[in-house]
Design brief:
heterotrimer; A mainly alpha (294); B alpha/beta (386); C mainly alpha (308); A: 294 residues; mainly alpha; two-stranded antiparallel ribbon; 12 helices; B: 386 residues; alpha/beta; Rossmann fold; 2 domains; seven-stranded mixed β-sheet; five-stranded parallel β-sheet
Chain lengths: 294, 386, 308
């Protein structure tokens, strides 16, 4: 029984990472309609930034983390400026920025590989390997930390989108760009902010994940796929969807791995199969949008 | 519509011809060309790069001492991007350029596909670093040799080391890369042959964020030891982390992948007590000489991967020397006749050789077992697989 | 008659090149032609029919593995094996397409992404059937009509494949079916209102292009006489998408250009800048899209010295 609870907590933590990447997609998708597959490699760059700040410069964790997240905001802003704004302002078809961002994905990954070499790099553990064991409850400090931070981020994101004027303007832009512009919403600023925020969220996710796995230059694409899957499961209509989607995906993966008695190699096929079935049965995601969908 | 087809055809034709760089015309008689296929941008890069550096250093050393048969060696290094079909293409490029030997330093699957070319063009082909057991068995290619430490040799050495423990029930864990699967298969076969029961066999998929479910299953099966056959760093780190998080205590016996120094930095605090096989004994006199020379030449400290490349080029040079010419057939015969070649890798006293028509050259008794002490690779505690 | 002559001329030119090139360049040429064949069929699926799918390489792989398994393990004669392979691809494509017609846009992309990954898992776990992670090797193409098809003669087979693919797709593109596909791509509701069966159009487009990919796979299997899981992996599907987009999606000649440029670019860049070529690759891609979102054919159409 303790196994199960420990697994649930660990899966929830894993799901939080997916959820953060899904949120990164969502924050960019909402106001611009652009799906940014480079979120995974935003994470890669941030992870290596974390290596520099936390391992090399040995800054204390909170300071190093803050540094990387703020730098990531700049990276997101830069990404938008280079790959998206020129296309959007020329009225290019919506596929064009998505492809330009795929190009950015390759650039990020290769730049990291050239700058740091091919070996994985360590990110120090914020809490060491400590764990709590209290009756049936068993979890690592790291897992609890991840869950706590993700919860705060989502609460903040939810509050921003639902309660603040700035967040509502995102929604307005998502519904109708031209109308939003006519109402005086600064499209450029909204878009820049969206990309910056998306990059910061991806950076946070990477910093939470890579103490476990190390920072390596090929980590981006699997994370981008998993984040996107989480987004689809949860639905793009509501912020909470990203969190729900991420956790469900991680639970499906890990519970299958642990309890389903089939050959180990086949186990990785099960979440894929589930996803396909899910898409066929409920493609709009679990949480329906409130009012109009994005 | 077919006008456009004609245009397209002409375009393709001219582009293809334009890229047909002039073949090595008037190839100067002097240098002996050895082709190297490595991975500069793909998944094998962390491993292929140091091996290539070792090879380049070896060529430099050889040339400084006068070369082979009075001629300098020239290495032509091609990048197969870690993709097997491009590896085959690069093999053809090297054959066209007049290489007398192709040295494959990329993924095992890429080396395999390049073998179709070496077989067809009857060109000597050699890998000093790949460890996949099936490379010499899946294709009957008399032009191909492998001197990397086979998975079967690795597990035999580990079992020999663990013999005193009288293991009966163990767990096996790996990840989803091709080499990880091949290594796990070698491990599995050897364990079964020795009547050791595998009570849990787990796989950590590429891109996973945790290995806790797999480790929980292993914990539930209560094995006496855990064999790690994975070869991809991030997944191995996840395994070690989960092992620690879940409070597992059973001894870990790991493949030669754990001998790569990167783990000392990315798996800090997780390594103490892990036993792993290695082909590098730093106390071996040849290894000491090599490390010092390499350090002086490049300013960086070499490790075991560099040694594979270094030994590889020296093996090739030795074969060419014994062949007495750059004729591919003679080189093939000389290569197959290699016996007792002393390199820098392997336990003290071990040598390379392709005896009895075998095409795998690493001494099956030539691996050592070392144990991590804290986060540093400790000394050799066991040698050979008897 | 005229078009037949033109076709014969094209085949003759492309085949002749195969006889002129040395082994290394022939290898590059053959693989380039196969990528062009794939780009053509993918261009129809993505550019003309508007379906974002990542399963193209999966069908390439199904075709390749199918013919190898049927010829070597089931011992079928070549024509029967080839036909069976095509039928298998079509059945699989229908099994995927019929439920998937309800998905559009990126949901289809995700489903086919999952399918592509599932296929690789299947290949890796296939044991004796698929050769596992090492794949299948040591086989060769049986003689056809007493002729051994190897070397430049096999290049002719590949040329025939590409030409056939081009002509077939060009004909379909200009037929009412092609127009129906475009209508469904641009505005499914309007297309339905005009009487087009949207679901059936999508299914047929998907099945047709996937079968063509499978056919190309069968031809690929005998190029290196090796099939293994990494060859059919997901990264190739992304590259294919890039090729079609950069060339100009919807345009056949665009796909040819895109495939040629993107396939040859790493070979050209590698000797010039060593291992940084992947980085340059990404930059070039970005620049092309920024300069002309409609791809290289867009650039060509917009050239300023045209008398329009």
């Amino acid at each position: 029984m303790q196994d199960l609870i420990e697994l649930l907590i660990s899966a929830t933590a894993g799901g939080c990472i997916y959820a953060l990447f899904a949120l990164s997609y969502l924050v960019v998708l909402r106001p611009t309609g652009v799906i940014n597959f480079a979120v995974g490699d935003w994470g890669t760059v941030a992870a290596f930034g974390g290596f520099l700040a936390l391992s090399e410069a040995a800054l204390p964790w909170p300071i190093g983390m803050a540094f990387v997240i703020i730098a990531a905001f700049g990276l997101g802003w830069l990404t938008e400026r280079i790959a998206v704004r020129p296309l959007v302002e020329r009225g290019a078809p919506v596929l064009a920025p998505i492809l330009a961002l795929l190009g950015m994905l390759v650039i990020f990954r290769e730049a990291v590989s050239v700058a740091f070499g091919p070996d994985p790099r360590p990110i120090p553990q914020p809490f060491g390997y400590g764990r709590i064991e209290f009756g049936l409850l068993a979890a690592s400090y790291q897992s609890i930390f991840i869950i706590g931070i993700t919860a705060s981020v989502f609460v903040g994101a939810w509050y921003f989108f639902e309660r603040t004027l700035a967040g509502r303007s995102f929604e307005a832009v998502a519904l109708d760009r031209r109308a939003a512009a006519l109402m005086g919403i600064n499209l450029r600023r909204v878009t820049s902010f969206a990309f910056g925020a998306g990059a910061s969220i991806a950076a946070l996710a990477a910093l939470l994940l890579t103490p476990n796995t190390s920072a390596h230059y090929l980590m981006g694409i699997p994370l981008a796929i998993q984040g996107f899957t989480a987004l689809v499961i949860g639905g793009v209509g509501r912020t909470e969807g990203a969190l729900v989607g991420g956790i469900i995906l991680a639970l499906a993966e890990q519970l299958t791995m642990r309890y389903v008695p089939i050959a180990p190699g086949l186990v990785q096929g099960v979440p894929l199969l589930l996803l396909i079935i899910f898409l066929l049965v409920r493609p709009t995601g679990l949480l329906a949008a409130r009012g109009a969908s994005a | 519509m077919l006008n456009r087809a004609l245009t397209a055809a002409t375009l393709v034709a001219s582009l293809a011809l334009a890229c047909a760089a002039p073949l090595a015309t008037a190839q100067s008689q002097t240098p002996i060309r050895i082709g190297i296929i490595t991975d500069r941008v793909g998944p094998a890069k962390p491993y292929a790069e140091p091996v290539t550096l070792g090879a380049v250093f070896a060529a430099r050393e050889i040339n400084a001492k006068g070369g082979v048969l009075g001629r300098p060696i020239e290495l032509q290094i091609e990048d197969d991007q870690g993709r097997p079909d491009i590896s085959a293409t690069m093999a053809r490029k090297l054959v066209d350029a007049g290489a007398v030997m192709i040295v494959s330093l990329s993924l095992s699957t890429a080396t395999q596909q390049a073998q179709t070319v070496s077989l067809e063009t009857k060109t000597p082909h050699f890998t000093p670093s790949n460890s996949g057991d099936t490379l010499t068995t899946q294709i009957a290619n008399p032009w191909f040799w492998q001197s990397g430490p086979l998975g079967s040799a690795q597990v035999a050495t580990l079992l020999s080391y663990a013999r005193a423990r009288n293991l009966k029930r163990v767990a096996l864990i790996t990840e989803t890369s091709a080499l990880g699967q091949m290594t796990a298969r070698s491990f599995r076969e050897a364990l079964q042959r020795n009547q050791i029961e595998i009570v849990a066999e787990e796989v950590v998929p590429g891109g996973a964020t945790t290995a806790e479910p797999q480790m929980q299953k292993i914990r539930a099966a209560n094995p006496e030891a855990l064999f790690m056959a994975g070869v991809v760093t991030p997944e191995n780190v996840l395994m070690l982390r989960a092992y620690r998080q879940l409070g597992l205590k059973m001894p870990i016996l790991a493949s030669y992948n754990m001998s790569v120094p990167v783990y000392s930095s990315v798996a800090k605090g997780l390594l103490d007590g892990i036993a792993f096989v290695d082909a590098f004994d730093p106390a071996r006199p040849e290894a000491k000489r090599f490390s010092e020379a390499f350090r002086k030449d490049s300013g960086t400290e070499p490790y075991n991967l560099h040694g594979y490349g270094y030994d590889g080029i020296y093996l090739v040079a030795d074969a060419i020397r014994r062949a007495g010419s750059t004729d591919k057939d003679k080189i093939r015969e000389a290569m197959q006749a290699t016996r007792g070649f002393v390199g820098v890798m392997g336990a003290q006293g071990s040598t390379y050789g392709f005896a009895d028509g075998r095409r795998t050259g690493f001494d099956t008794n030539g691996m050592v077992v070392r144990v991590y002490e804290q986060d540093q690779q400790g000394r050799v505690v066991h040698t050979g697989s008897r | 008659m005229k078009s037949l002559l033109q076709a014969a001329l094209v085949i003759a030119i492309l085949s002749a090149i195969g006889f002129l090139l040395g082994p290394y360049h022939t290898d590059i040429y053959r693989k380039l032609l196969l990528w062009i064949a794939l780009a053509l069929s993918y261009n129809f699926l993505f550019g003309v029919a508007g379906q974002v799918a990542f399963s193209h390489f999966t069908f390439y792989g199904v075709g390749a593995y199918a013919i190898v398994i049927l010829v070597t393990q089931a011992g079928l004669p070549l024509p029967l094996a080839a036909t069976a392979g095509i039928v298998l691809c079509v059945l699989l494509a229908l099994a995927v397409a019929i439920p998937a017609t309800r998905l559009d846009g990126f949901y289809l992309a995700l489903a086919t992404l999952a399918l592509a990954q599932l296929f690789i898992v299947f290949l890796n776990e296939g044991g004796e059937l698929t050769g596992g992670s090492g794949g299948l090797t040591s086989y060769r193409l049986p003689d056809v009509g007493g002729i051994t098809l190897s070397g430049p003669r096999y290049t002719v087979v590949i040329v025939l494949l590409v030409t056939f693919t081009w002509i077939l797709l060009a004909r379909i593109d200009q037929s009412w079916f092609g127009r129906a596909c475009r209508a469904v791509r641009d505005n499914p509701q309007a297309a339905a209102a005009m009487g087009i069966d949207v679901a059936r159009t999508r299914v047929i487009a998907y099945a047709l292009t996937s079968a063509l990919a499978g056919l190309a796979g069968m031809v690929y299997a005998f190029v290196d006489n090796t099939v293994s899981p990494p060859i059919f992996g997901l990264e190739n599907a992304f590259l294919l998408l890039f090729m079609v987009i950069i060339g100009g999606s919807g345009s056949q000649i665009g796909s040819v250009i895109g495939a040629t440029v993107l396939y040859l670019l790493p070979f050209v860049l590698s000797p010039l800048i060593g291992h940084h070529h992947a980085l340059v690759f990404g930059v070039v891609m970005l620049l092309v899209i920024l300069a002309q979102p409609r791809g290289l054919t867009g650039l060509w159409a917009a050239r300023p010295w045209r008398s329009r």
